[in-house]
Amino acid sequence: MAELLMDGIEKKYDGGSFAIKNFDLQIKDKEFVVFVGPSGCGKSTVLRMIAGLEKATAGSIYIDGKVLDKKMAANGDIAMVFQNYALYPHMSVYDNIAYSMKIKKVPKRQIKENVEKVADMLGLKEVLKRKPGQLSGGQKQRVAIGKALIRTPKVFLMDEPLSNLDAKLRTQMRMEIKELYKHSDATFVYVTHDQTEAMTLGTKIVVLNNGKIQQASTPKELYNKP
Ligand code: ADP
Ligand code: ADP
User: Fold this and answer.
1) 84-92: average pLDDT
2) Whose CA is nearest to atom 10 of ligand 2?
3) Atom 15 (ligand 1): residue with closest C-alpha?
4) How many A from CA of 101 to the centre of ligand 2?
5) Cys-Cys crosslink for 165: which of 60, 95, 169, 181, Cβ 3.0 to 4.6 Å?
6) Can you tell me whether residue 56 is helix, strand or coil?
């Protein structure tokens, strides 16, 4: 559970123009915020700044009133799932999911307990010994989610997590993410191109255009206009 505040955020990449400008946004505890907008409007940049992977050139991001820093992101309080899964190809599913706990030197028994719990929840128990190359797209995405969930993040970031999946799997995973949200205390921030995903998952939808917030509203307000 966490409250996020983005205050006067600007981001300018070296040699580029502003990717994000005049950006103010408050995300409350347990909200599910979905960013939508055309390619290049700055959605990923916003997510990467919250993840601590990219530094804002102006403004501050606060998490529960504290200025976000690299340490907080590395702590496991903030986790991110990427579109291309970002799994370690040479490691088993078990070791992929366990990775962030292993590098933190968490005792093996506890790692095992957590991995098995997450694997159970995500339907991965039967494939723990496989390598990512031996998994379906949906399984890979579940591993990526498991990898992020293992340390019970307060903020859960997902950048187009379903866009590499076929339509049927996308529908299924969408419902799984909704369930995950229902049973989690985390605040979710999600990027998608898919209007159905935005509508079914979001408690708030933020439309970005050219690095600026064009509109922030509930799915109903946004899509049920006369
Ligand atoms: P979206 O996720 O909405 O497609 P991005 O956040 O990826 O948008 O990109 C926003 C803008 O910033 C784009 O104009 C893009 O070209 C630029 N941009 C993104 N990443 C970088 C980078 N590493 N270096 C330079 N420009 C970048
Ligand atoms: P050790 O036996 O050396 O004490 P562990 O029991 O923690 O270590 O497991 C060692 C390795 O075995 C892990 O890194 C993982 O690759 C694999 N492993 C452990 N438990 C499972 C499991 N339930 N399913 C699949 N692989 C597992």
Assistant:
1) 93
2) 108
3) 40
4) 13
5) 169
6) coil
